[in-house]
C-alpha cells in the first residue's frame, strides 16, 4: 500500500478514536488488517429517525490512491433507505464519488453517512423501489425502515404485524429475508408479495 | 472595450467588411453548384454549409488567439483567460461583458476565486500538510487563490490521479467544499513527468473543443480532425481526411430533415423496441398475384415478379401501376380517427402499429442503401469489362456513378423523413410533408429502377430522372429543414 495512504489511515484512525462522537458512541472504526487497506465502520442510527436505536456496520476499503480517491464504503447491515441498496448495501453519496476531496477523512465520511440517514435524498436514489415508497407513501416507508432496523440493526421497535406476514411466507417455504424484501417492496401487501415470489 | 471587438477571433457575430473578406478566403464550401452561388447559396441549397476541417495544430492556434485576445482585454493571465472562456463556451463578448459588469462575481462563478475570502494563514516554519499528514517546511506548500495550502508532492499526486481518470480542466482544490479550479499554468508548473503533461494537454484540448460550439470533433474512427464553422447548426459536415459525413451540431449521422433531439429520441426508441421490430426484417415476401416466394436482392422497392411479371411495391405489396399516382397511401400512416374512444389495449396496439409502419420504412430504406451500394459494385465490374473490351472509356460511363451517388443521397434523406413524420402532429403541415415525402419516394424508386437497368436506359432519360429526384429532395428540405 502506498505510503501516504497508510500514513493517513493511521492518523485518521486515531482521530476517530479520540473524537467526541466516539465518546457519544455515535461512530466507530476498527482495523481489519495490518496493512490499513480494510476497516470496519459503525454508525448509530440518528435520533428521531426510523433508524434510531440501530447500529449499522460498514465495510470500508481503502484504495491504493487514498486520499486522492475516496474510500469504497458499503453497508454490511441490511438497511431500508432510498440512497442505499437494500440488496447490496451500495451507497449513493456525492462525497464518495465526484465530490470527494483529498482533505476529507474517514470521520467526515461516517458523519456524512449518519447525516444521510437523517435526511434522505429520494431524487437521487440508489434503490428505486425504496425511493418510490418514500415519495409515495412516507408512513409505509418509515414503518418498513423501522422494522428493518429492528431485525438487522438491533433497533427496539418490534412490529408484530410485519413479523406475522413474514412468518406466513416462511411457512410456504420462502426464505426469511426474501420474504421481508418482497413484502417491503409491495407495501406489506401479502397477496401481491406472494404473487411476485411464486411467479 | 469597443475597439477590441474587431480584433477578437472568438464568437462574435457582428463582423465588419474586412473580417468578412478573411472569412470567405478562410472558408470554402462543399456545394456542388458552385457557379450560381454568389447570389445567395442558402436560398438555392437548403443544406448549404460553410465550414473548414482543421488539424489539431490549427485548432490550437485558433483557441490560443481567442485566449490571447481575452487575456489582453481583461489584463489577466492566459491561463485564467482559458478558464473563463471554457466556462463561457468560448463566447469572448459574453465574458468581457460579464467581467466588466462584475469582475469578482465572474471570477467566483467561473471557479477562479473562492466565494469567501480565505482566512489569514498561520505562518509557522513547519506546517503539517492536511493530505499526507507530514510536517514540512513552509516553502514546500502551494495554494490556489483560495489559500488552501497543500504540499507540492500532494498536488502532484492529486493531478496525476485526476488525469489518469480523464479529468483535466475540471481538477479542483483538495480542500473540503472548495470548488476553485486549478488553472493550466498551476497544473503544468507541478507536473513534471512528460507523459503526464502530454495526457493533461490532450484531455484539456478535448474539453476545450467540446465546450466550443463552433468546433466539432470528426466522429470518424481514429480521426482527430476538427470541423470549424461559425454557423452552429444541424448541417451536413464532411471530414476532409476520412470523409465521414455527420451533423455539425450533434456529431451523429447526418439526419435532415429530422432535428437533433427528434433523431435521438427516435434512435433510442428503435433500440428499446428492437425486439418487437425484429420480425419485419424479412428478405423474402410472396408475390401478391402468383404467391411465389420472391427474394429482394436490389435496393429498388419497385418489384417485378420473375414468374408472373406482376409489378408491385415491396413495402405495401400494392400494385405498382396505381402506386405511381397514389404513393401517398404507401408512405403515410393512416391513424384511426376514433382511437381516443377505444380501450387502453386497443390504443397500445394502435401505437405499436403506427411505430412499426414508420420503423419498417426507415429500416427498409436503410437496407436499400446498402443493396444499392452492392448494385454499384456490380455495375463497376461490368463497366470495367466494357472498357477493357473497347466499349467506351471510363469517362463515358461516369454519369452512371454520378447517378448512383445522387440516388444514395436522395434515399438517405428519404430514410430520415420517416422519424420526422412519426413525431409530427396531425394537421395540414403533416399532410403537406407526407405528400412531398411520397413524391420523393416515387421518384427515388424510378431512379433506382433505371439505374439497375443502367446499360439499357437512355442516358438522357436517366439524367432527367436524376434532376427530378434531386428537385423533390431539395423542395422537401426547403420547406421542412428547420435548423
Ligand atoms: Zn502533502
Ligand atoms: Zn481551496
Ligand atoms: Zn475524419
Ligand atoms: Zn444533429
Ligand atoms: Zn408473381
Ligand atoms: Zn407501397
From TrEMBL, chain A:
Its EC number is 2.3.2.23. PROSITE patterns: UBA (PS50030), UBC_1 (PS00183), UBC_2 (PS50127). Residues 4-154 form the UBC core domain. GO terms for molecular function: ATP binding; ubiquitin conjugating enzyme activity. Residues 161-199 form the UBA domain. Keywords: ATP-binding, Nucleotide-binding, Transferase, Ubl conjugation pathway. It comes from the Eukaryota. CDD domains: UBA_II_E2_UBCD4, UBCc_UBE2K. Pfam families: UBA, UQ_con. The active site is at 92 (glycyl thioester intermediate). Gene3D superfamilies: DNA helicase RuvA subunit, C-terminal domain, Ubiquitin Conjugating Enzyme. The keyword Chloroplast does not apply. SUPFAM superfamilies: UBA-like (SSF46934), UBC-like (SSF54495). InterPro entries: UBA, UBA-like_sf, UBC, UBCD4_UBA, UBQ-conjugating_AS, UBQ-conjugating_enzyme/RWD. Belongs to the ubiquitin-conjugating enzyme family. This is E2 ubiquitin-conjugating enzyme. The lineage of its organism: Eukaryota, Metazoa, Ecdysozoa, Arthropoda, Hexapoda.
Automatic annotation (TrEMBL), chain B:
It catalyses: [E2 ubiquitin-conjugating enzyme]-S-ubiquitinyl-L-cysteine + [acceptor protein]-L-lysine = [E2 ubiquitin-conjugating enzyme]-L-cysteine + [acceptor protein]-N(6)-ubiquitinyl-L-lysine. Keywords: Coiled coil, Metal-binding, Nucleus, Repeat, Transferase, Ubl conjugation pathway, Zinc, Zinc-finger. Its main location: nucleus. Its EC number is 2.3.2.31. Residues 437-479 form a coiled coil. Pfam families: Ariadne, IBR, IBR_1, UBA_ARIH2_N. GO terms for biological process: protein ubiquitination. CDD domains: BRcat_RBR_TRIAD1, Rcat_RBR_TRIAD1, RING-HC_RBR_TRIAD1. The keyword Nucleus applies. It is an enzyme of class 2 (transferase). Belongs to the RBR family. Ariadne subfamily. This is RBR-type E3 ubiquitin transferase.
